[in-house]
Amino acid sequence: MTATEDLFTPIHKAIRSMIYDIGGRLQSNDFADVAASTPVLADLEHDFSAALSAGCALCLIHLHGGDEETKVFPSVAEFGPTLIARLIDDHHDLTRRMAGIAKMAREIPKKGRAEDRIAEGKVLNREVNDFFAAYLAHMNLEENELVPLMREHFTDPQMAAMRSAIMAGMPPDRFAVILRWMLPSLTLDELTGMLKGIRATAPPPVVTFIGGVAAAHLPPERWQTVRARVDW
Question: Which pTM value belongs to this model?
């Protein structure tokens, strides 16, 4: 039987939604106003150097790459070494670019003149756009090539175990942020399939936690439909 698990598209949809949100906020931000800029810059890169923030876009992207490299790539490398090497090279390049963006974002509020902050904000916006374009292409590559490769060589239970290992290693605040972006980004069928798998394999406290996030962030009618389908 052909495997159907997809470890990448759901989390990638969450990251795309976060990218679209922070990108829109960044391009319309008034960098002359330091107080207004602070939350936007924090959501972009807060404490990226230590990867401490559960909510910042670059932090989640950075940590997601680490999850892939430690929990997924080692098993897949046997079947697609060239692809895995390319994805890891991408990660290294993307991490370098993220570090540059984070440094730039921290420096902008320190500029004394409003016109300097505005000028640097324009540069930051271009750098972030270039980075997001590269990262979107990277996620597309994983979905187009890595997902089919894994379905060919791994069973659904094996991939579910990888997903469980990733989830188990996440602090609750980071897990909640990912779910907050992921669940509203999925189609009804994707939600149903993912939550069925989680309900069948995850410990009861995890099921309860995910249900709470879903109830808080999904439209009530959609959550009711999914609950009925999944018997949640």
Answer: 0.90
